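Can anyone check this?
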Amino acid sequence: MRVLVAVIIGLTLAGCSSAAPVEPKVVPTTASAFPTPSASAKREAAPPVVVGDIAIRDTSPETLAAQRTAVPMALTIDAFDIDMPVMAVGIESDGQMEVPESAAVAGWYRFGPVPGSAQGNAVIAAHVDDSEMGLGPFSRLRDMEVGMELGVAMEDGTDVTYVVEAVEQTDKQVVDMDLVFQRDGEHQMVLVTCGGRWDRDVGHYDDNVVVYATRTDAPAR
């Protein structure tokens, strides 16, 4: 897996785990290390001075999602004749990203960056198949190549175009989802689906297929 924040709070497409909490170390101090100043040396601290009103910004995922004026509506990959609807999704009760039940529909993670953002990864995921249609459009992700283009049609009528930079198929146990869902750094489109061998014992595929793409019309910095 390539090195691609913990803002997803353990979010994965195939379960998550948490390490045992680490007891903080308490370093004792001595009176001699920090001598108490004499009464004459003590001074009352002046209160801070605030000029004007302080704006309080709600940065909860729900508020950030509501502030967006345009969301992705469709994803196209001309090389494979893919043109599929995209819906906004959130987080399941078990901490995993929601994915539309039908493999014909992709889900955009609405608590992360939107396609065309200045930074961070816009993540779109879909099932590789389903019981009704069999293999879905995202089954072709493993066949994508560097240099291929994909487009995202936005609700406001604009389109954002990306070019593929990397395609990876990695065991789900070692995929770094913190980096897949990162909110800072260079903006990328990240497409995610399942791949590899179907494990009947656990009921899912062994791997994730992840496509990383950058904007072809990235704004000047």
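Reply from J.R.: I decoded it. Residues 1-12, 14-42, 48-55 have pLDDT under 50 and may be disordered.
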